[in-house]
Structure formats: structure tokens, C-alpha cells
Design brief:
The structure is a single chain. It is built from 15 helices and 16 strands. The protein has about 450 residues and is of the alpha/beta class. The protein has 3 domains: about 80 residues; about 230 residues, Aldolase class I (TIM Barrel, Alpha-Beta Barrel), CATH 3.20.20.70; about 55 residues. Helix 4 runs parallel beside helix 5.
């Protein structure tokens, strides 16, 4: 299977199974439409009105070479012999240190921080048991990921600090390396917190929804004031003193800012170089929900921003948009291409009470309770179902050119929109396909 398109002044052909990308001329691009259904003479006859016969013959010869090298129209790969996570190791954990929040984001999937339950802060004891659980259940894997999450984790920052130090102790005992991340809205950032975060957190995710008017409308404080002016100076200070360590400004766009291209450009104007903005996923009845009628405008925004992105990167290669970062030289391993994030298997979320869920978006949904820190993972059937939730078992993905880039998409988005985490969220699929097209076109221009 191939996918071909024209974007940012390039004719691009993707060979889906091999992952090969070809930037071709218009002649080759046109011929490929008919290559599998017409013989050589018929191809020459059909296209000779527009192109020279010898050029057509040359293009056909080049296509034949690529096919012989299995770089074009390659056969579907047989992955039946690949067993995913046979020893059930856990390598990443979302640690919900706070089921409470100090903002009132209108779209919050966590119900303003409490995940549809009681407001709570994780105890130091539960946090330590969580890190121990990860260390003990990670097998021979040395590098482990822990994301301090909420709600708002800075509301429980003393516990966060103690857990980082405890993690360093566990590293020596279990021969592990913890990579810590914190996701914060920034309201409670102080100089001392910034100093600790920049010293100990391998990555920081800073929540900001773009332009001031957008952010302040969708992310108000508890007293219904805007949060932009409160948090942006703190984010700038954190980033300015962070050196080369990773960070991301992470936003959400809704029906209220389908022109999110302006928000991405606003990030750049504020001096933020590593950014992402995600489509909201929520009940379609909510006034801010994205629906099919919004799709044309959204896809156009991705295309237009790809042009902006290329223009910016002509003079500033440090500017990175998460969804336009794609590695065609090496890319992810085979298993990663098939299973994606690993939620419910390699990746889990822990609540303040010590309950285990497949990921942060399933927290509070009792049918997705996997177990707890005392007994471990007891819902084996649920874990096995998530292990099988790969792109090969999602029939809607069979003929999708982007399937090895998104690995079947987000399980939570699929479940909350379709009631089945094996049935992909189609609106999200359309956006992912456009992001993949944009990403490849950008690389084609920058090579």
C-alpha cells in the first residue's frame, strides 16, 4: 500500500509497510495512480499527451527498481511471531500525587482535578510504594519513567521532593535509573520550586493554552480570573534557567480556538521553543467539543502552520512542534510501531489511594481498575486486553497509511467516543493523518 500527496511544494509518496518516503517528480506521481492496473504500454499511452515517451519509460524503470528493493508497493509485513511484553514488565508510571487543582479549566477530563471522586493528595507512604512497585516490576529494564501528575502536583510538592530523593535511593538498590517529569499549570511555581525542578526533573510539561484571550477564557483561576499573566512570567523564568534540559509548553485547542495556528505562533513570540497543542477530547455535547463539522478548518490549520513552521525554522532550528517531529532515518522499534504508548501494560497510573489504572485518562472509571499497590495487578483479563489493543487488532486501521505512526491511536479517546478501545476515534484519526503528512513534507523541505 502507498499513500501519495502534494504539500509544501513536494510530491510525496509513502510506502506504508516499509516506511520508505519518496519525493518524486510530477510525472512519477501521476504514473503511480495507474501503475498497478495498467501495463507499460498502456501507461505510456495514457500519459504521453502530457509527458515525453522516454521520460515515462525512465520513470517506469525507476519505479520497478524501487519495487524490486521492496521500497515501493511492499508486501504487508507478518508480525504474528512478535510477542508484546511477555513478562509483563512495567516501565513507566503516571503518579497522581494530587487529585486537586487550583484552576477551573472548562474542558478538564479530570473534573477540575478530582477525577470524579474525592479531592485528595497522595501520601508519602503511597508514593514510596508506587516507586517500589515500578522498580520491582520492571524486570531487567534499567531506565524507568515517572510523571508527577494531577490535578496539580505542585499542591503536594513536599511529597514530590521526598519521592525524587527516595527514587535515587531505589536506583542504587535495584540498579535502575528514574527519569522524572512533572506536569504543572504553574500557578504555584516559586523560585525554590523552579530550582528543584530544574535540578531534578528530566522533563517538564507546562500547561498553557496559547494566546492570552484563549487561555484566560478556557483556563480561569478559582476566582474566575485569567491565569495567563500569572503563569507566563514563571514559565519564562523556569525555561530561562533550565539550560539544555527538556521541557514542553503543552496546550489544548477546542471549538473556541480552531485557529490554533495563532496559538502556536503566540508560543514562539513568547520565546517558547518546544511546544505542543492537542485537540480536546470530550463529550460531543459540550459546547467546546470538536465535531466533524470542524474538521476541514482544523486540517487546514495544520497545513497552514506547516508553512509557518518551515518559515520559522529557516532561521531558528530550535523551534519544535511536537506533532511535526518525525524520524524517518531510524524511527521507533517494531513493537512501538504496533502498540504505541503501552497503556495498561508497560505504562500505568497510580491514584492517591494506591489504585492502579491503565493510564491517567481512565482514572475514576471503575471498569478500568486494574488492581492496587497492596495486591498488584489483579484484573489480568483487563491487562491482557490492553496488550492485545495494537494496530493489528484494530480493523479500521488496516488500510490507513498512518497506522505505524500512531499505532492505532489513543485507547482512552477510542473508549470515551466509541465505547470500545479497539475502535479508533475517527476525528482523531483524520487529524493524525494530516499531522503525518505535514511532518513528512517538512522533512522533505529541510533535507
Amino acid at each position: 500500500m502507498i499513500h501519495k500527496y502534494y504539500l509544501n511544494d513536494n510530491f510525496i509518496v509513502l510506502d506504508v509497510e516499509s516506511g520508505s518516503v519518496h519525493v518524486v517528480d510530477e510525472l512519477t506521481y501521476d504514473i503511480l495512480d495507474d501503475y498497478t492496473i495498467l501495463d507499460k504500454n498502456a501507461l505510456i499511452s495514457k500519459h504521453s499527451k502530457k509527458y515525453n515517451k522516454s521520460d515515462i519509460e525512465t520513470a517506469i524503470g525507476e519505479i520497478e527498481i524501487l519495487i524490486s528493493e521492496e521500497l515501493l508497493f511492499s508486501e504487508k509485513t507478518n508480525y504474528e511471531d512478535i510477542e508484546y511484553n511477555p513478562t509483563n514488565i512495567v516501565k513507566a508510571m503516571c503518579l497522581h500525587v494530587a487529585h486537586d487543582c487550583n484552576l477551573k479549566c472548562k474542558y478538564c477530563f479530570a473534573a477540575q482535578g478530582n477525577f470524579k471522586g474525592e479531592r485528595a493528595l497522595m501520601s508519602l507512604e503511597t508514593g514510596k510504594k508506587s516507586l517500589e512497585f515500578l522498580a520491582k516490576n520492571s524486570g531487567n529494564r534499567r531506565n524507568l519513567e515517572v510523571d508527577f501528575f494531577g490535578g496539580e502536583p505542585l499542591m503536594n510538592f513536599d511529597v514530590v521532593k521526598e519521592l525524587v530523593h527516595y527514587g535515587r535511593e531505589l536506583e542504587k538498590i535495584y540498579n535502575k535509573n528514574f527519569r522524572f517529569t512533572i506536569t504543572t499549570n504553574g500557578v504555584l511555581l516559586t523560585d525554590d520550586k523552579i530550582e528543584f525542578i530544574n535540578e531534578h526533573m528530566d522533563n517538564v510539561v507546562l500547561s498553557l493554552d496559547g494566546r492570552k484571550e484563549v487561555n484566560d477564557y478556557i483556563r480561569p483561576t478559582l476566582n474566575d480570573k485569567g491565569s495567563f499573566d500569572l503563569i507566563v512570567p514563571k514559565f519564562k523564568k523556569l525555561i530561562d534557567t533550565r539550560g539544555e534540559k527538556d521541557y514542553y509548553i503543552r496546550g489544548t485547542f477546542t471549538k473556541f480556538n480552531k485557529d490554533f495556528r495563532k496559538d502556536l505562533k503566540a508560543y514562539y513570540d513568547l520565546g517558547f521553543k518546544k511546544v505542543s497543542i492537542e485537540p480536546v477530547v470530550t463529550d460531543p455535547n459540550e459546547p467546546y467539543a470538536l465535531t466533524e463539522e470542524d474538521l476541514y478548518e482544523i486540517l487546514k490549520e495544520y497545513e497552514e502552520f506547516s508553512k509557518d513552521y518551515l518559515d520559522i525554522r529557516k532561521t531558528d532550528k530550535d523551534f519544535l512542534f511536537f506533532h511535526y517531529m518525525i524520524d524517518l532515518s531510524q524511527g521507533p522499534c517494531v513493537v512501538k510501531r504496533l502498540v504505541g504508548c503501552g497503556a495498561g501494560s508497560e505504562y500505568i497510573a497510580i491514584t492517591p489511594e494506591g489504585d492502579i489504572y491503565p493510564c491517567h485518562q481512565f482514572v475514576g472509571e471503575k471498569e478500568f481498575l486494574m488492581g492496587n499497590l497492596e495486591e498488584g495487578i489483579t484484573n489480568i483479563k483487563l491487562r491482557d486486553n490492553f496488550k492485545c489493543a495494537n494496530v493489528l487488532n484494530k480493523t479500521e486501521c488496516d488500510n490507513c497509511f498512518a497506522k505505524y505512526y500512531c499505532s492505532g491511536g489513543c485507547h482512552a479517546n477510542a473508549f470515551f467516543n466509541n465505547g470500545d478501545f479497539l475502535k479508533p476515534y475517527e476525528l482523531g484519526c483524520e487529524m493524525e493523518r494530516k499531522r503525518v503528512e505535514c511532518s513528512i513534507s517538512i522533512l522533505a523541505n529541510e533535507i
